[in-house]
Specification:
Radius of gyration: 24 Å
Largest sheet: 5 strands, antiparallel
Helix content: 40-55%
Strand content: 15-25%
Order of helices and strands: HHHEEHHEEEHEEEEEH
Length: about 250
């Protein structure tokens, strides 16, 4: 619950929070009044208590799970079907036990443990739908935010031959910076500290005292002998210093 509230405060606006609650409430009321999944013979007040409890618990659990597979509009693997499927499975496996327990305690159901696979199928279907909605809403919100933001000031420093290119990395070489981009490389005269400041707006991080790297530029990340190395799309290998390694691990880079 604490992690969920932190996630809401950092990534969701109050409007998004209340919208999610409203959708959850509407879904719970619909399931209760329709007597979904064989609950139509249960008295309405008990059905309301059951479905609202299950739906709000699912909303909280779903938000936490979605945060594991998508962050700031980025899918963890970059594949919508893979991340969506894994998120739905991660939601469904433990939540099937929650639904089973709530059904037994609140509705007096005598579903045996042998019936869990059958119940899991229903939970998985709902989880797939909720996961898809969560991912689409998160990516849409992030894309709108990014499109509305002003382009990073650093892009104005790109030489003419690199204008319009994606900045993959910035490497310090004496008093110069070597730019690694989707259109090749070039040198400019600037301090790395100033470049990092002006690159704000591009998802990336300083990974070494001589390197800043854009997250989208990473083709591979490996660890050996206690040190990490990032391989960029242009084949350049970037060392990760211990100063930044912990932060990158926490953010899922390595």
């Amino acid at each position: 619950m604490i992690a969920f509230l932190k996630r809401l405060s950092l990534h969701d606006s109050p409007r998004d929070w209340f919208r999610g609650l409203a959708v959850t409430l509407a879904a719970g009321l619909f399931l209760a009044f329709s007597g979904a999944f064989g609950t139509d013979e249960t008295p309405l007040p008990l059905r309301l208590a059951y479905w609202l409890t299950v739906m709000f618990a699912g909303y909280i659990w779903g938000a936490l799970v979605t945060g594991l597979f998508i962050r700031r509009g980025r899918l963890r693997s970059g594949n919508l079907w893979l991340d969506g499927g894994l998120a739905a499975l991660t939601m469904s496996v433990p939540f099937t036990l929650v639904v089973w327990g709530a059904t037994r305690t609140m509705l007096g159901s005598d579903i045996p443990l042998a019936g869990l696979p059958y119940l899991f199928g229903y939970v998985l279907l709902v989880s797939i739908a909720l996961t898809g909605i969560n991912i689409l809403m998160e990516t849409r919100r992030t894309s709108v935010t990014h499109s509305a933001a002003a382009p990073p000031k650093f892009l104005e420093r790109l030489p003419l031959k690199l204008r319009g290119a994606e900045v993959w990395a910035v490497e310090a070489e004496d008093h110069y910076l070597r730019l690694h981009t989707s259109r090749g490389q070039d040198l400019i005269l600037l301090r790395l500290a100033d470049a990092v400041s002006e690159l704000e707006g591009i998802e990336g991080a300083q990974v070494h005292r001589s390197w800043w790297v854009a997250r989208d530029a990473i083709a591979d990340a490996r660890r050996a002998d206690g040190r990490a190395t990032l391989t960029l799309k242009d084949g350049a290998e970037v060392p990760v210093s211990r100063t930044y390694a912990k932060m990158l691990r926490e953010q899922g880079w390595i």
